[in-house]
Amino acid sequence: MAYSIRISPVLLLLLHFVPMQTPANEISEVQKKQFVEVLKTLPHKGEFFTEDAVRTAGPYLPVLFALTDKDIEGYDIYPFMAISRGLCDVKKHRLYANKHFADIRHSELKLFWAAMLFEYGNPSPQIVKYLKLALKSDTQARLLAEMVGPHYEDLKRRIEAAGKY
After folding, report:
1. pLDDT digit string (tens) for 125-159?
2. What is the tally of structural domains in the chain?
3. Going along the chain, which residue ranges are E strands?
4. Looking at the DSSP assignment, which residues form a beta bridge with residue 48?
């Protein structure tokens, strides 16, 4: 006996464009462009995105990680960091980010995620190593200081004191 399963066209589209477990190297240019367009429409309150926006953006985390410097060229980096901040506040997204940190392609977003994951505690050894190397680079250390603001010296001290990696 044969069974037939009907899947709605809307569900098929969602399954095609919302790749929560897709590896970064399998993210298409179409998916990247779609995420950038979705990001422009997400609701925000002041400088931050709403909880609804974070929920909507959550499945796009692998796409966010796959964005390169070239993909974001010409856009203000702030919305990408703001949605990253909201996503990092959600435990399942932090766990995903810790596990898939190497998939983050955009240099500033990678540094931002590293700092956020370090602040949340229990970062992977890879993240600690990345931050220690960033502190040795004048450019990256300056960028990290701008991202962290007045708490930079404290963060720097804690990174330097973190285990040997």
Report:
1. 999 999 999 999 999 999 999 999 999 999 999 99
2. 1
3. 44-45, 48-49
4. 45
